[in-house]
Design goal:
By secondary structure, the chain is an alpha/beta fold. Helix content is about 45%, strand content about 25%. Strand 1, helix 1 and strand 2 form a beta-alpha-beta unit. Helix 2 packs parallel to helix 3. The radius of gyration is 13 Å and the shape is globular.
Length: about 120
Amino acid sequence: MAHSVLVVEDDQDISRLIKLHLEDLPCQVKLAADGIVGLAEAEAKQYDLIILDLKLPGMDGLEVCRRLRARGSYTPILMLTAKSSELDRVLGLEMGADDYLTKPFSVLELMARVK
């Protein structure tokens, strides 16, 4: 059975690359290019995993994460971002993310974290 993954990432090249590799696992992948659409999609359907960029148009990834955690249901969130300082990682984790991977990232490492 394929797992469902929501990828909220505004860079189309990165989101398509992630989708391509996730479908090999196999996963059913839904893409969202901004925070508002990503939040709406996450609230409309139950996903097994959300891969969430921090710097998004509309609503940033930290706010999306905070709102998802405030609703009470639990879906693992992997933050994927160019922000790599220790403070950024700690803030992401404290807002409710389960894991944090910085760009540029290894596709093999991302797939291992997803598994």
